[in-house]
Structure formats: C-alpha cells, structure tokens
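pasting for the record
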Amino acid sequence: MTLTLTLLAIWLIFVLVLPKRGLGTIAQRLRQTKEGDRAFVFGPPAQLGDSVPALVAGEMALLVELGLPIYMWAWRAENLGRRLPNQGKAPQLPASLKASPAKSRQYTMPPMAWRREWEAALSERVDHAKTAGAPVAPTAAVLTVRTLGTFQLGEGENDLTSELLSHSVLCYLWLYLLSHAIVHPGAPIHRDMLADEGSPGLDREQQRARLRGRLRDLLDLKAAIAGCIEVSGEWVQFRPDGAAVDVVTLLGAADAWDRTVGLLPDEGVPAIEARMADYAGEYLPIWDELERRVTGGRGAGGELVRTVRLSTEHAYGRLLLRLARHHGARRDFARAVPLWEEVVRRDPERDDVVAQLIDAYRQTGQVDQARRLGTAHPLGRKKVE
C-alpha cells in the first residue's frame, strides 16, 4: 500500500508540477504578457466546446502541459496584462501600431559552431548565385502575395502557391513572419521565439536544431519566396520590399487617405475604390487549419493573425467612411448613403456617422428611414458639425 501511494505521489508530481514544454522563452513571454504585448503566454486553452466541463477540460490540459507553477505565473501575467489601460480596445492601423519597443533583453549566447555553420552555408549559397550570374538581391517587387479572402503567391504569370503550401511547416513560418512584419514593421524576431512557435513542447536545443533545418529549407525554396526572408545571426524577419502584399497596400492606403480632409482629388475616388476591391474577405483564411495542423494552436501566431484581421476590417471601414464623406460633401447622397449604411452596419456605435446618415436620409426624402434610425440611435439625432 505504501509503495502504491508513493508511486501515485510521484506520478502526480510529474503530471501536475513538471512542465512538458521548453522554457527557453518563458521569462520573455511572461514579461510581454504583463506589459500587454501578448494576450496569452503560450496561447489560449484548447477549445473543446462551449460547456463548462469542456472549458474546464481545456484549462486542465493547459495545466498538465505547463505544470502548476508556470500555469500560475502565466495566469497572473495574463490578468495583469488585461488590467492595463486600453486593453481590449480595437488596435489601430499598423502605421499607428508601435513596433516592438526597445527593451533590454538577455539571451544565452549560443555556441559559435552554430554561427560558423550558418555563415558557411550562407557564403556557399551567395557564391553559387554569383557564379550562376544571378543577382543576390532583387531590386524590384517580383512576388505578388494575395492574403485577403484567399492565399495566392505569384511571380509574373507563374503561380507559386503550391510551392509553399506543399511544405506545411515552412508555410507556417513564412506566414508567421509575414504577419509579424505587418503588426511590427521593421522589427525582427529572435530565433528562440521563432523556434518555440514552430516546435512548441520541445526543449530549447531540439527547437533550435529544427529551426536551423527549417530556415535552410525555407531559403532553398524558389528565389521569389525565399528572398522575402532575411536571417541575420540570431534575428529573422520578413522583408516586404521584394513583394507586393495586398494587405500592406490596403493598410497603407487607409492610413494615407484617412489623413486627408475635404474633397478628394481626381485620382482619389478610383484609388480608394481599387483598394476596397482588394478586400475580398478575411486575412489568411487558410491560417486556422494550418495552425491546427502544425502547432495544435499552442503558439502565439493566432494572436498575430487575429490582430491583422481586425486591422484590415478597420482599414476597409475607414476607406468606406472617407469615400462617403467625399460624396456627402459633394451632396451626392445617392452614392454616399449606401457607404454610410455599410459603415453603420459594421460599427453601430459610430454616432457621428449615424447622424450623417440620418441627415442624408432627410435630404433624399427618406423620412421613415431617418425616423427609424433615430429611434434606434437616439444620440444620432444630433448634428455633426
């Protein structure tokens, strides 16, 4: 009996106390979560259903994976992060998003053998490119990336989508780096963080070993795809300079036109309408299935993708509103009303837009519509100066 209880106690210690995943980035993840840069330390609990037993089962699975001490630290950090000001509010456009703030970070110096191995492989690849007479770095955008409502890669008339989709893990890393570059423009990501995203649950050495092989494979793909990835020592990042990415164009257009006032110039209306036409659906519809297959949803990539999705929705709404105000200023209510209606449908709390729409209804003789909208939104009766 005593032996049985002893073995049971040892088993419980292993299950409930010892962590089952690598801890190389735990300090940085906890710090980022407490500061509000992350919603979860290691990602949300598994979604097993909407019932209370299913939610408890998801938390228990996370508890077993992290171990009780780390689970409690993570729970405390997530609660502290949620209490910060402006948490839970919709993020602004990437142009307004702050890049990763400069912080003092401490990392364990990796063995120099890893650096020499990488530099030798890079030197060999560059020498081969020079011998073949091919330019090492392209000077113009050669890759077209469509991410809104679909996922397509193209180089001129060549479709490169299958080249990336046929390698699930490489595709996951490429899209993760793309999303990180959109949310944090110009900010690279450390190898340890990327290794933990691609191989959650393994120890640090295994994660780094796998990442080295995957980065090597990623840079061996077609030049147009590999050329977007830059590896510099311990830092990796997506360089959108050599690619035309629809979501980057949409966000940039929304930011640029939102700074203008009054009537649009002659090229403004067709330019905005062209960017609005690019918005064919949510950002990276393939992501959820890809993330489930590669990491089981245990990484933080889902948070990045959700941030970009929300930013693109807001960008589309801002373009709608800018175009509606232009037509309203020209007293062209036939074109302004459908745009204002769509803005109100997307964000019913915009009382200023509701007031403009009520006024437009009255100007076009739609008194009943104005009365119904004013009843549903009492604050919308106020005129916007």
